[in-house]
Amino acid sequence: MSYLPVAVVFLLYFTGIPIAFALLAAALSYFVFMNTGSPPDLILQNFITSTASFPLLAIPFFIMAGTIMNYSGISSKLMKMADVLTGHLTGGLAQVNVVLSTLMGGISGSANADAAMQSKIMVPEMEKRGFSRSFSAAITAASSSIAPVIPPGINLIIYALIANVSVGRMFVAGYVPALIMMAALMLTVGIISKRRNYKPSRAKRATLLEILKQFVESIWALFLPFGIIAGLRIGMFTPTEAGAIAVLFCTLVGFFIYKELKIKHFPQIIKDTVYGTSSVMLIIVAASVFGYYMSWEQIPQAISSGLLDITQNKILMLMVINVLLLFLGMFLEGGAALIILAPLLVPVVVPMGVDPIHFGVIVIVNIMIGGITPPFGSMMFTTCSITNIPLLDFIREIYPFIIALIIALIIVTYWPGLIMFLPNLVY
Predict the structure, then answer these.
(1) What Rg do the C-alpha atoms of the chain give, in angstroms?
(2) Residue 61: what pLDDT?
(3) Distance (Å, whole) CA 252 – CA 204
């Protein structure tokens, strides 16, 4: 009976109830009907106190910074930068799509925000250049999985809070995995484009002068993620203060340098920030209450011992966890999967000698693959709804990219020295 609320969560989620309400309903059903010895006030207190975390303030700040960037002309500057770098390659605009997601990752920090933006910008342009709409939508969704792995991705902050590790180290650890994912997708795009004869967007490789000129135009956007890392490293500001500085920086660049940000945009920016923040925070609060139930019943300890009964070999354990995460990622939304599963799995792998920073990257890359995987991938639905692509057409095109990202995940999982090189160097 102590595992019944877990079954309730999945039952409610699969019937279409949002994950936050499913978690709350399951936790309340336990404390109201099963564990009647706990006063209801305790649940309400846990609900409120879970929001009283200073690092959580970073989330609305970074969401607002990403929203401001979308109105300030940054995306067009970055698209030109990506085109200069990769437009001459086989696949042309599809390669640009992947590189643009990588460049935008440090700004939007959200896979769904990146998928929505590129669905509006890149997919129509790719269709004009001869790419099929279903292929364009598939690579747009696949490339958006890179965004949350690059700082200041919201999932990096959430994992750091859950696992009680340095936000700065998590930020720095995201760069190499993101580049591995980018390389895997670009290689796949090249193979598919060669077979289908998709043309480059540029007739020839850009000259060094063209690249330098475009770099100067885009430097303000490119500076943001690296400036955040540098400021955190030298102790200039905390992660929360970094979010506030990012908002100020984006606003000044939008107003005075690119001059595309206007006062009239701010009501919509505030609205988008409130919507984005409230949805994330409601899931965090609900997961905190649900985590209180799991702690009460000692479910994390039971799962830890159950997994350790399967194997105590670190390599096999990581393989088991990856398979589990890939499977659950097909059904759970990424943020929800991270909040529910990270507290259960971190205590299993850390005693085996897995660095919690390295494990955080594995989990985040994994749940991003889930975001483009049928039947419930969130980026899949975002892209298909904006581009009006039938789900079956999308599924036929997405599988090569899922395979490429799984290969990237294997590299990330079993080459810890490569992933931890930058965090160890910077810190």
Answers:
(1) 22
(2) 81
(3) 36
CA distances from 332 to 19, 34, 212, 368 (A): 8, 26, 43, 11
State residue 55's pLDDT score.
64
Closest residue by Cα to residue 427 from 169, 205, 252, 244: 169
Q: What is the mean pLDDT of the chain?
A: 82
CB 267 within 8 A of CB 64: no
Give the orientation angle of helix 58-71 with respect to helix 93-108, to 10 degrees: 140
In this structure, the dihedral spanned by the alpha carbons of residues 324, 330, 331 and 336, taken in order and rounded to 10 degrees, is: 70
Q: What is the largest CA-CA distance in the chain?
A: 73
Read off the DSSP letter of residue 201. Answer: S
Using an 8 Å Cβ cutoff, are 162 and 50 in contact?
no
- Contact between residue 421 and residue 358 where contact means Cβ atoms under 8 Å apart: no
Query: How far is Cα 303 from Cα 293, in angstroms, rounded to an integer?
Result: 14
E-strand stretches of 142-233:
none
- Token pair of 134 as six digits: 């279903």
As given in the structure block, the two tokens for residue 6 are 């877990």
Residue 370 in tokens: 């889930």
Predicted pLDDT of residue 89: 82
- Per-domain boundaries in the chain: 54-426
Phi and psi (nearest 5°) for 203? -65, -35
How would DSSP label each residue in 6-41?
HHHHHHHHHTT--HHHHHHHHHHHIIIII-TTS-HH
Statement: residue 410 has pLDDT above 90: yes
More confident call, 19 vs 409 = 409
Whole-number pLDDT of residue 358:
94
Of 94, 280, 273, the residue nearest 187 (C-alpha): 94
Which residues, in sequence order, are CB contacts of 409 under 8 Å at separation 6+?
Answer: 322, 362, 365, 366, 369
Measuring CA to CA, which residue among 185, 4, 10, 226 is closest to residue 91? 185
Phi and psi torsions of 115, nearest 5°:
-65, -40
pLDDT tens across 110-146, in order? Answer: 677 677 777 877 888 888 888 889 999 999 989 988 8
Report the C-alpha gap between 406 and 250 in whole angstroms.
34
User: Model confidence over 217-275: pLDDT tens digits?
Assistant: 888 877 776 777 677 667 787 777 877 888 888 888 888 888 888 888 889 989 888 88
Burial of 381: CB neighbours in 10 Å, binned 0-12, 13-18, 19+: middle
Could you count the other beta carbons within 10 Å of the beta carbon of residue 45? 12
